[in-house]
Structure formats: structure tokens, C-alpha cells
Amino acid sequence: MAFNHLPAAMHDALGPLSVTPVTHSVPMAKNHRPGRPPESGDSRPSPTMILDRLATGAGRAARITHTEHLPPRSGTHAIWPDRIRPEVISAIEGAGVDHPWAHQATAAEHALDGESVVIATGTASGKSLAYLAPVLSTLLDGSEAPNGRGATALYLAPTKALAADQRRSVKALATPLGNAVRPAVYDGDTPVEEREWVRQYANYVLTNPDMLHRGILPSHPRWASFLRALRYVVIDECHTYRGVFGSHVAQVLRRLRRLCARYGADPVFLLASATAADPAVAAGRLTGLPVVEVSDDASPRGELVFALWEPPLTELHGERGAPVRRTATAETADLLTDLTLQGVRSVAFVRSRRGAELISVIAKERLAEVDRSLPKRVAAYRGGYLPEERRALERALHSGELLGLAATTALELGIDVSGLDSVVVCGYPGTRASLWQQAGRAGRSGQGALAVLVARDDPLDTYLVHHPEALFRQPVESTVLDPDNPYVLAPHLCAAAAELPLTETDIALFGPAVPELLPQLEATKLLRKRPSGWHWTRRERAADLADIRGGGGRPIQIVEEGTGRLLGTVDAAAAHTAVHEGAVHLHQGRTYLVRTLDLEDSVALVEQADPPYSTVARDTTAITVLETDTEIPWGQGRLCYGSVEVTNQVVSFLRRKLITGEVLGETKLDLPPRTLRTRAVWWTVTEDQLDAARINPEILGGALHAAEHASIGLLPLFATCDRWDIGGVSVPLHPDTLLPTVFVYDGHPGGAGFAERAFHTARAWLTATREAIASCECEAGCPSCIQSPKCGNGNDPLHKRGAVRLLTELLRSAPPEAGRATTVKPDLPDSPT
């Protein structure tokens, strides 16, 4: 029997949310009365005062396991390079910036020298101005050219709303420059009648990688004058381009560079990231170019108080009688309610769409008990909302009407918020980089701020709140991406060939895997070789072969059955787990039940309901080893890395009580299986090792299963992933290894680099896994150590002590380093999608 742990089919979409600086805020009243929000016009509370008030109440203080105080920091000024036009400097001074910070001036100097540069400084350190100063100056120079269009620049953001927010900032800054700078957004929300104007006249085009991939590059003849004059490409929030998404974006950028060269342009790339390890290496891998790093942050920073918060144990019992903690969702809703009552401007970051909706609903209900006018001060924001709903929320945020927001990671990316006093992070977001990015949303005007990480009942969260050094004494993770992944590269070669025939000179641009892939693409009749190069052979759009967000297939439309009203969409890959028949779906604070899921027509029919439970899908998984790239001995056992095929099927769903998480029942489902070819790390143990660890056949399955769950939970400490990016299978006797085996695999076709990172850090990774299990205070295993919220086997069997003994024995013979894996080139399927 195999015990499995499947990755989420798809993350929440990076739904757009943009907030411009606002002047309205509701500070703490000097004589604040409990249960009432303060009046405006009083002094802002200190972060320590806010935390003290949150800790007031029975048992509240004991939930804070650690408080980190980051002191304020003063800034270092410089002067702009003399090549920046004086008109641009005057415009910057008119916006209230008298002198640049030293890192801004340094980055601008590199840009003007024609060197690609990555600005990797803290949140609110002025990265936008660092690249805007040289860009605007160059556009102003180009506007004075006697003939032609003049210089152009392209801005790429991971979300549409961030691009829209940046356009507002650019427009405001460039207003004194007159018509010399013409910024325009070009994305899926741009009206058709405006698109031609953007192509012909805009010289600063703001878009996203999706539109570049599907819209601009395939239509490059219509963009010829823009591409011919392209001087700068700005890539904002570049740390978000990781894993499979980052690998796709890397190939999109190589296609852009190829077309620019065709039109005689060689743009300079300017990248910005608040959180990145080895930023020059990551930026170079993303762009394919040498990149200079500017990471010495010279901007001032206000005090940050960062609290780690662990919800208390309840009297309830979960699966297999394990003790249950109060959910992070309920705890975050309480904190958001209290912060709103204090008049503290706050954002609660939530990992899932459903969680954001639920926190908003709970907070609204509790605020209504105090004052019927207060619920309208809190809202939810997530991906999947319709454009008009997004715009309405953005207007409310801009006006200051909203005081508290429960949001998915859309709000994490680069928005500009002033007056924000606190951030609550509901569950570790998967990487230290994301945690610091979210925490940095508060205190953006140099004032002090409070950040609170609320731990989920999860091995990694529990480990972190009791090992604060893993958060505060470690650098952020290295960005993991693999542009040579054949499942990523192949469709982009097809797209590039459709744009311009591929030639021998293009091979170096797209990477070392190209020579092996081209014959396979010819064999599948996707490309045809002619004297002029490799040509796209089909009538369909080649760009449609690559879904750069990794969704795979047409989005499922969520439709209200009685009215036919479209509520939103969900990615096709997530449909089996998110909108199966009987699933509970939350939208704008309303609850719906899914009545029908039609996979052929990509429609889920729902009706409004009010069930007292949530739903969680269950699945089964089998795994086959296709090829072992490398393996090393761990004593008698082996640590391996290679290619696998994973077959998964959603078979049922659980109904859980809201707030407590108590299981009410299980319902069977009949959904088709899905197959994934990917990359995995796995380890085996021998019978002698089992004897040494005192593992008998009765507990072997539970020990392997528990070790698998915990190792998946701890891997995000060592790779830029979260547990929903990866999956696992544990087998007491696997047919391919003929030994007890634990697999951990990437949840993306062709792999995403996470399993390879696990292989290289296996000793440290599995040591942390063993420590997390052994140090948990529960008796036989709980969600804080070995139980998983997405286990396809209902967390059965699990054996906590067996897992500790098994990992102890395995690590006893572990070598210092795991070795070096080679790059995989698996056979392509019939279509490289």
C-alpha cells in the first residue's frame, strides 16, 4: 500500500490588487474605549502598544512564543548621476524626494552605462525610483529625436493590478515632462479600442508576462516600431518568478530578446526585488544575461516588532484522536477584528481564497456585534473576482473606506500603502522571502509597524514559532527555476519558431537542451526544418501550447445555477479539488455548494447555501520510477534523484466543522485519474537498518508515512516552495526499488527544481524533519508534526516514534553532501504542453 501526499493542483491565481498612497487613516484614540473604534485625528500607536493590546485577555500572552524587535535604521543620501536630465530631477523633487538614497543613484548609474542591474533592497526602499529616473531621462531624450518614434521602455509585473498601480505612479511623476512620457497599460483588461493607440503611440508600456507571451510577441510585426526603439525592460518583483512559472518567464524573456535583436535593439534589463538571495545569479538565470547587483540598502527603516503567535490547543480531537489546535483562520479573524476596533490599519495575508473569504466573514460578524456600521470597514480580496469587483475594492482602499483587509498574496506584490500599521500573516507563506515581503507592507512611510505570524497546525509552522532563529537568523532562500526543463522549453521553441524561424544561431540563446529537443519536435510534426531554419507547421497559435502560470487547460467557470450569473473562475488543474460536486465555495462573503462539475464544458454549477462545514478533497497516488539520474549511498540505504510518473485520483471529500475543523463525514467521488511526469528525490532503507531502528512490519508503513509528511512540511525551509508545490508517496515495498521507500516530488510537469534542491540539502533537510517530529509535545502525532491537511489516506497509518527512530538511523550514515545531480531530458509526450 502506498501513502501519498499530493501537491495542490494549482495555487490561488495572483489576483490583482492595487493600493495607491492615501492620506486617510484612523489612528488610536488617546482614551480608547474597548469595543469602539477610535476617532480620527489622534496620535498613531506604537507597534509595541498594539501588540500589548492584542495580548490582553485570558491566555492571549501565552500564545506569543517569540517577539523580535528590529531597530530603526537611518538612511544615506547621494546625488543623481549627471546624465539624468534636469527636468526629471525637478519632477522627482516635486514629488517630495530632494536627494536619492545611495543605492538608487548607484543603480541609475549602471542603467545609464548600459549594464543590466538588479536592485535587491528592502521593502519601501525606493526601487521604483531607482529604475524610473534613468528610464524617464532616456524617454525624454528620445522625445527630442528629429525623426522616428524615439526611445521606448517595457515594464513587466506579475499581476495586472501592479502594472496599473505603477502606471498611476509614473503618470504622476512624469506630468511635469508633458507629452514626452506616454505611459499605458496593455493587458487583458485593456479595451480593444485602446490597444492600437498603445501600440502606435505609448513609449512606456506596462504589462505582464502573460500578455507578453500571448499577445505582444506573437504579434511582433504590429509592435515593430516599439521593439525597434526598446531601450529598457523593467522586471518588477522578480523574486516571484520562481519554479515552473519563473522557468516559463525566463523563456518568454529570451523570445523577447531574440525579436528585439531582429529589429536592431539590445535593451538593458532593470530588475527589482525586495527579497532575494544571490540576486545577480537569479536575475542572470531569469534573463540569460550578466546582471550587476545593487543590494546595499541605504534607505531608512522604521522599527518593526515581529511576533510569532501559536494558537492554543482545544479540547477537541481530530483524526485518529490527535489533539487539535484552534485554527489559524479563526485566530487571524480575531486579531483582525481587534485591530479594526483599535483603529489600526491592517492587512491579514491568507494562503487560500477560501481562507480570505472566511476571515472576512468572521471579522464582519464580530464587528457587527459591537457596531452595525463597522463590518463595511473590512473586506476580502482574492484571485477569481470579476474585474468590476476588483475595481470597486481598489476604490474603497484608495479612499480609506476599508480599515482591515483579508487578502491572498495579490496584496504582497509591490503595492504602495501609506498609513498601514500592522500585518497579520495567517500561516507561514512558504518561504522566508514571502514572509518578509508581506511583513514589509506595514510601516511603509518610515513609521514603526507590527507584524504577526500566526502558526497553522502544521509541522513547518510549529517548528518555526519554536525555532525563531530559522526565520530571523537565516538569509532568504535562493530562487529556484530551471529554464532548461524540456516541458517548459519545448513549447517556447515552438512559439519562437512561429514568431520567426529558428536558426542555428538561436540555439545558444535558448540553452543547451535545444539540440536534443529540436529532433523530437520535428518527429512530432510540430516543427519542420527547411533551409531557412525550423518553422512552425500548424494553423493553431503556437503560444497556446505554453500555459506559463501552469494551470493546464481552460479555466472552469463558476456559474450560479438558478440565475446563470458568472461568479468567477478556477484553474482547470484545481477543479478536481476545489469545485467537485458537493464542494463548499466561498465568494464575496457568500457560501455556495457545487451541484455539478462538467469537465468537458469547463463549468461548475453552484447554488447559494449556508452549510455549517467546509470541504477537503481526498485522493490516492501511485508513483513509478522512470529514470534514476544520480544516487549516493546512505549507509546501506540510498538517496536518489531522477524522473518519475505520478498517477493521482481524487476519490472523496471530507466535511469539516467551521472553526474547529472536526470531521463530520466523508463522501465518495467519481473523477478521472490524472498523470504527471516530473522530478523526485527518494530514499530507501534496508532490512538491517529497520532492525537497527527497531521498526517491525506492523509499524513500518506508519513510520514511513509520518516521515514523508514531516519532510514535505519542512522542505520549504530549504527550497523556494511551499508544501502545496510538492507531493510525496511512501511505500513499505516499492516495486521499482524493492525496498521501503519515501518519495518527494515536484508537483509540476518536468519538475520545478524543488526536488533537486532537496537532494542537495538532504542531510540538513531530514535532520530538521527529525527534530520537528521529536520535539513536538503530542503523544502519538498531530497536525503540528506528522499529520497532513491534504493526505490522501486520511492520515492513516502514522507512527510518530517509528518515524523518529527511522530518520535517526538513516541520518547516522548520511554523507556531508548529497552529491550533484545531472539535468534530465525525459522523452516528450505527443504534445509538449
Automatic annotation (TrEMBL):
InterPro entries: DEAD/DEAH_box_helicase_dom (IPR011545), Helicase_ATP-bd (IPR014001), Helicase_C-like (IPR001650), Helicase_put_actinobac (IPR022307), HRQ1_WHD (IPR055227), MZB (IPR018973), P-loop_NTPase (IPR027417). The keyword Nucleotide-binding applies. The keyword Membrane does not apply. Keywords: ATP-binding, Helicase, Hydrolase, Nucleotide-binding. One of its GO terms (molecular function) is helicase activity. Residues 21-49 are annotated as: Disordered. It holds the Pfam family MZB. Residues 108-294 form the Helicase ATP-binding domain. SUPFAM superfamilies: P-loop containing nucleoside triphosphate hydrolases. Gene3D superfamilies: P-loop containing nucleotide triphosphate hydrolases. Residues 331-487 form the Helicase C-terminal domain. This is DEAD/DEAH box helicase.
